[in-house]
Each structure stands twice: as C-alpha cells, then as structure tokens.
Here is the input.
Amino acid sequence: MKIIDSKIWDIGTKLYDLIVINLLWMIFSIPLITLGPATYAGLKCIEELEDGSSHNIFILYLNNFKENFLSHMLGFNTLLGILIVFVNLAINMFYRENFILTGLCIFITIESILAIGAIFINYDKNPIDLILKSIIIGNKKVLSVLLSLFLCIGIFILTIYIPLLFFINIAICMLISYKIVFMVY
Here is the structure.
C-alpha cells in the first residue's frame, strides 16, 4: 500500500506544482510585454521539476523571472511583433491574389513561430544574439517545435470540453514544450 500511496503523493505533488506554475504564469503575464520572461520562468521551473531539484516553486519562479528579464522581454516581443505584422501582410496579400508575396509572408510567419518556440533555449543577455540564435535553432528543430505547437493547440481545444484542464493547461503546454523541444539537446 505504501507504493501506491507514494505514487499518488508524487502525482498530486507534481499536479500541485503545475497548477502553481500556471497561476504564476497568468499573474506575471498580465502586462503582456512580460509574456516572454513569464514563459521562460515557467519553463525553467518545469525543468527543475523534471530534474527533481526544486524546493520552493514560488521563489524559483521569481528568480527565473528576473534572470535575463530584458533579453527575454525584448526578444519575445520583437518576434511577436514580427509575427503579427507578417500575418497581417499575408492576409492582405492573399486577398489581393498576390500568391508569391503571400508565400513569403507565410514563410516569415512560420520562421517567427519557430523562433518563438526555440527562444527559451538560449540564455544570452544580448537580445539581438538571442533573436538570431533562436531563428537558427528554430530552423534545426522545425518538426519538434511544430509538434509541440500542435499538441499545445490540442490541449487548449480539450480545455473547452474538459474544464478541469483550465487550471493546468498553460503548465501542461510548457511541459510538452520542455519534453519535445528541450529534450532534443
């Protein structure tokens, strides 16, 4: 019976930690410009959970949020801005039936998505290097990043049908990103 109790306890503890990470991510992402550092902190906390070396998830999250705050904020927001601009351009070009420019805008959009998916692997403090390295890493890990993206979209769709997932959906997506994207290295 102790084996079952310890497994149930481990699962409950991990679920609790994921809920705390999800709530912290939601709170720290309220000003949208801090979405990059908040996601980075969540991913680092999940990495610590997977290694089994986390003690206080709140303190760990705060420390990771402050670590390289400026570079993750600038890098993530720059790529997000590029993504928004080129999605808008792709839609406008598609309506004008200019398929060559539409294809180019879609390519840049996919490149930005891949770079956003891989941006948190780098721990550099220079935002320009962070963006450039993320784009290069994004190219090397196209399938991993896209698989992670589709799994996360699936989790969000499941949240509509299973409301209990709402409380941990962000953390589950971070866990999927960690498992698929980060475990390649």
Remarks:
- The helical segments are 2-28, 35-51, 57-66, 69-95, 99-118, 127-140, 142-161, 169-180.
- The mean pLDDT is 76.
